Amino acid sequence: MFVNENVDLYRHLSFASVGGFFGAYAILCRSGILASAQTMNLLELTINALRGDGIAVLLHLGALVLYVAGTMMTVLLPHFFGIDMRRAAPVIDALACVALCFIPADANVILALYPIFFAMSVQWSTFSGAKGFVSSTIFSTNNTKQASLALAQYITDGDRVHFKKVKFYVFTLLAFHFGAATGFFAVRFMGVQGAWVNIILAAAAYSMVVCEDRYLSLSEDEDTEEEIA
Questions:
Q1: Is the pTM of this model over 0.85?
Q2: What pLDDT is recorded for position 2?
């Protein structure tokens, strides 16, 4: 089994590619809407409420409920049922892909994005970064900000710690947009059925979680042996 001290980084990049795929898929298949976060959903909920569009409000409210539920699950399921969310998250990503493939292309846009709203809330709440850096795998705003700040800090003081930070966030952005590019070609050739392709990326992310757990287990065993010696 692949085990490496940088396996948490590889796990992080794997999930970033999954997030990038979902982002591109949602935009390409569902009227340009990004379903990985709640900013647009809450804005549209507010606007539709002011317009008096009750049906639209309910649809956006449903997306919010799913996002909140996914986030809460990452705390409640481990606490009450002992579920390992690190391994459950990529499975949920894969199941979301399956669900997306069975939603007709002409379905209501927000309703069709429900699987992504849920899966991305679980992923983001389960994995918050790697190598000591906080970083999202489902959107790019803060990753771009952190890369820019670290680059400015490196220019001003030349500290290579800042350069390491730049590389981390740049690689995260590259992985995210690799996933987006994969999503582009999947949708181009397969339409809404292109979501099947993201199961491959989710499987790769799951394997990286397994490898990371294996690495941590080996590290703990080595520490225990040193203490005994």
A1: yes
A2: 54
Q: How high is the pLDDT of residue 228?
A: 59
Question: What span, in angstroms and rounded, lies between the C-alpha atoms of 202 and 90?
Answer: 5
- Does 1 score more than 60 pLDDT? no
| Banded model confidence at residue 217, pLDDT cuts 50, 70, 90 | confident
CA distance 35 to 28: 12
CA angle at residue 167 from 164 to 170, to 5 degrees?
Answer: 150
Can you tell me which residue has the tokens 């340009």?
A: 32
